[in-house]
Amino acid sequence: MPVVIVDGQEIEIGANERLNCIEAARRAGKEIPHYCWHPGLSVVASCRMCLVETGQRDAATGAITMVPKLVPGCQTPVRDGTVIVTESDTVKASRARVEEALLIDHPIDCPICDKAGECLLQDYHFQHGQPERRADLQPFHSRKRDVGPTVTLFVDRCIMCTRCVRFTREVTGTAELMVTSRGAKEEIDVFPGHPLANKLSGNVVDLCPVGALGDKDFLYQQRVWFLKREPNVCGGCSAGCSIHTEHNQDAVYRLKPRENPHVNTWWICDEGRYGWHHLHDQARMLEASRAISSPTHGRTAATTPATESIEWSEVVTKLRDDLKSAGRLAVAVSPMLTVEEAWMLCAVARSIDPEAFLALGFVPTRGADESFPGGFTIRAEKCPNRKGVEEVLALFSAGGRSWNDLVDHVSAGRADAAWVTAAYPTPWIDEAGAAAFSSLAQLVVQDLFDSPLMQLATWRLPAVGFAERSGTWVNVAHHAQSFRQAIRPPAGVWPEGRLFWNMLGRRGLYDVNAVRQQIATSSPSFRALAGELPSTGVDLRLHQIA
């Protein structure tokens, strides 16, 4: 195996791996500072912050010959015998000069900058900068420019790393951003009449190593050191992008992409990035309720029976009794549920009616899949776990049944009760679609918001959003990712998993890991879920083949 020597430490790399000095140093636990380099973008080697000493060890004699000049680590590939020195006095002095040059004209406005606390310029100054400032502090004018519907450019803070420009050219292919002028007058700007409005535009804020690009949605909302970060999965579409949910006091403030080479690499779309506001919508369902009187056949949303609030402890027992006394049961298992929740719901349904009709819930779609030159794809299917729910239904011999099949089953009078799980963040059913359920003796609807179907329900149960649940989702490519609850749901709302757990008679608090292990050990389709999953998830198909 090829060997690279980093600060005297030998590390092995793959025979066919193509690494630069920055990536090789990381293997040895050394972080070479850098601004312009990003693994998902082309290399320009313009910031010069990553300059290191390199050389070559002779395989026969072991003698080391060093290159006389410092070289950019981002642009220098390694091979067998490459020697990298990252902490010499020469390297340290070079870094300090680069930092000093960047800070000469940079506004010292950290107290009002959104990037404070996660700014590379700030961090590198304390780690690698000069011990004291040798230039006079100059007054600055914080010029800002509106470059698009989601992003603000703070011109004076820019260090011209050009990450954002390369992103719009190489990843989105839209090329809205450019570099104007030359030399000390260089600035980032948009082409006239072409604002930064592509569907991945929010990623430039993540890419910016300083505070030059600000997210309008997050601007001045929260200091980053107050935020807690939870690894999560985006529920916006079937791509299932890996994200971090950043929150404070049970309130989400922003979503950021989490690197996952198997799913979304380094990016997320704007629809997913800003698709969390429904979690704090004042119109959310916040309490469980039940019809006061027995429903009448042929009711409509205008004649819906009055309801009364009911405690969740009563829901556990009375809901089962009502559904059991009603007779034949049909259940829509929402693709917004996790694998664990879907499995428990099917188990609950079969414990109430052994012949219960189980089907995949409504699958929201919008438009067509949209792919970008950088390889990222926004999926038209706006639910995160259709594949996972289909696999669960197959375990209960109900594979292949869709939402339309369930509607036809109910319309034909072959069900006396229905349980519809939803948890959709946007409207999904109209009065015409809900009319098929108007003649049921019992109708349970579990959703985030009111709807024509909810108005017909005899049992109205609130659902939870993506950041308020724990479990596993399987994306469109059969890649399974497990995640934990980031924030607690509003007071008075039980996560679906907690309700199903209690209805199955399980003791103690809802244990999602116990359910996952039970599913994994009882099903070849999910055996890859046994044990602790890596942070990037697992491909179920590969494990089935193995």
Please, could you describe this protein's structure?
By secondary structure, the chain is an alpha+beta fold. The chain folds into 3 domains: about 5-85, Ubiquitin-like (UB roll); about 95-225, Alpha-Beta Plaits; about 290-470 and about 485-525, Rossmann fold. Helix content is about 25%, strand content about 20%. It contains 15 helices and 26 strands. A 7-stranded mixed β-sheet has the order 16-15-23-22-21-17-18, sandwiched between helices. Strands 1, 2, 3, 4, 5 and 6 form a 6-stranded mixed β-sheet that branches. Strand 19 (about 370) and strand 20 form a beta hairpin. Helix 8 (about 340-350) packs parallel to helix 9 and helix 8 runs parallel beside helix 13 (about 495-505). The longest helix is centred in the first third of the chain and has 16 residues, at about 90-105. The radius of gyration is 28 Å and the shape is elongated. It starts with a strand and ends with a helix.
Question: What is the secondary structure topology, with strand pairs?
Answer:
Blueprint: E1 3-6, E2 9-12, H1 21-27, E3 51-57, E4 64-66, E5 71-72, E6 82-85, H2 89-104, H3 120-128, E7 144-146, E8 151-154, H4 163-170, E9 177-180, E10 187-190, H5 203-207, E11 213-215, E12 228-233, E13 242-248, E14 251-257, H6 270-273, E15 289-291, E16 307-309, H7 312-326, E17 329-333, H8 339-352, E18 357-360, E19 370-371, E20 377-378, H9 386-395, H10 403-411, E21 417-421, H11 431-434, E22 442-447, H12 452-456, E23 459-462, E24 471-474, E25 479-483, H13 496-503, H14 512-522, E26 538-539, H15 540-545
Parallel strand pairs: 1-6, 17-18, 17-21, 21-22, 22-23
Antiparallel strand pairs: 1-2, 3-4, 3-5, 3-6, 7-8, 8-11, 9-10, 12-13, 13-14, 15-16, 15-23, 19-20, 24-25, 25-26
Helix pairs in contact: 2-3, 7-13, 8-9, 8-13, 8-14
